[in-house]
Write a structure and sequence with these properties.
- By secondary structure, the protein is an alpha+beta fold.
- It has two domains: 76 residues; 147 residues, Alpha-Beta Plaits.
- The chain has a five-stranded mixed β-sheet with strand order 2-3-1-4-5, with helices on both faces.
- Helix 9 links the parallel strand 4 and strand 5.
- It is flat, with a radius of gyration of 26 Å.
- About 3% of the residues have low confidence.
Amino acid sequence: MATIGPLVIRPPVAWRLQGFLGHPIRFAVVIAVLVAIPIGMVLVDEFRSALLGPAAGRIIFVILLVGAGAGVGASAGQLISTLRSQAFMDTLTGLYNRRFMDAELGLLQSRAGRYGHDYSVLVLDIDGLKRVNDTWGHEVGDIALRAFAECLRQSLRGSDVAIRTGGDEFVAILPETPCHDAHIVFDRIRRQVTDLRAVDKRLQISVSAGAVGWKSGRTLESLVQDADALLLNAKRGGKDRLETEVPASTTA
């Protein structure tokens, strides 16, 4: 099992392209070039004068200019939307990815430090995924990953955030939830996974997790490292269990 490791943001090419196109002047230049090239190829002055006449040529020119501008603008908008989605989403499971987690944790850390809003983090690892891959192949392994992602979605509140950080590792960010209540969320996830094993006999997986919460003075790097260490303890302690840094709440 690989650990999550320190937080390092390395924007990919798609994300850098999104940032480049996000500048209004650069975006305008790209649009102008994309519009000018097809129009320049079609409406050279000789062609317009010979076939359409000066007046008709100007009308057609304006129509094509408006149409091309609208088409290119719509395509560019769709491109930016796609790039934004790809930058923050895991393509296999449809959950948010590590990059989004970094941004979300940074925001929660800021709010917690300023207003004292609690939050906690569950770092989860799928037990038995390698056995599924070895027995049934990686296609079934991908089915297991998507099914576990759905278990995560079904178990979280609307304000919680489900993330796949890579491989068989996932994270659940729980705003306004103290660490001693994280076991409530884990129990829901664990029940969903238990039901999954009964529905599809190929998906004999379970889930282990480590839970940490916000503390004044704790950095994001140490928060993730502490959660990783607790997850490792859960795996070594028999798997299919939660390790948390504080005792579970006696009231739910």
